[in-house]
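User: Hey, my collaborator sent me this sequence without any context and asked if I could get a structure. I don't really work with proteins. Can you help?
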Amino acid sequence: MRLLERMRKEWFMVGIVLAIAGAKLKPSVGVHGGPLKPEITVSYIAVATIFFNSGLSLKTEELTSALVHIKLHLFIQIFTLVFFPAAIWLFLQLLSITSINEWLLKGLQTVGCMPPPVSSAVILTKAVGGNEAAAIFNSAFGSFLGIVITPLLLLLFLGSSSTVPFTSIFSQLFMTVVVPLIIGQIVRRYIKDWLERKKPPFGAISSSVLLMIIYTTFCDTFSNPHIDLDKFSLVLILFIIVSIQLSFMLLTFIFSTRNNSGFTPADTVAIIFCSTHKSLTLGIPMLKIVFAGHEHLSLISVPLLIYHPAQILLGSVLVPTIKSWMVSRQKGVKLTRPPV
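Assistant: No problem. I've predicted the 3D structure and written it out in structure-token form, which is a compact way to encode the shape of the chain:
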């Protein structure tokens, strides 16, 4: 009974294990072009569901107040699109003297140049109970910025340039992020009393969608023939990627929790996830465009293909720890406030 109760409480962690195991056993089901059609169900329907769900659950005043939190937005965007790629470039100067394949190292640089994802950072911020409105804004805004900035960063660091179909990417982002969010907010206005009375499980819905994203992502990873590298290189790249993620999460945590930072614990949660996550959905198409016809495109893509599932897995594992920190910090803030 205790085990069943524990599993019920930790259903999301159990779901992650089952999703990865299922992807390993039968990757053809959730692979791009497979029976689940993730190029439609995940890229469009799942992402739209996440943002409709967010629009429905978020109070309008929370969303509007998040829009004017300029300091928070600047921190996330500068960290993601300026500090991250520059720090990776410096780190790769050290790794260049090792025996690691140079094209895998170039792939690590492309990871640093990528924009934030439109879904995973929002879901994880919501799961912790952080500033979801700020996460939504920065994920969407960062993705739009990345369409222009990422090709320029790739040109700066790798010397590769190409024309990117801005119109089609902009329209996809607008239809899957902005439109569902607005519709969710409109619907909320008419059923606000019902939502506050019934309190639907918005967090569980978002987490279930994330499990689907995890499953299809690992299906693509396990079925990708280009990841057939020697085990030493794969393990080394995986270790480097996890180390980068943990280091940058720790760095954003330290900077955003300083006494004079001006950020709340909920803001810190959004900063941790939005600043360190990178988009596979936008990243892979961009790599295919920028490095079209390149003989080492498959090797360049490997680090991003590893980074994406690793960030979701690592973030999901850290949710309980970050949540307990945020709750205790918020209680501490309430206790130290002088009585009115």
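In plain terms: Residues 1-331 form a domain with the Na+/H+ antiporter like fold fold (CATH 1.20.1530.20). You can pass these tokens on to your collaborator as they are.
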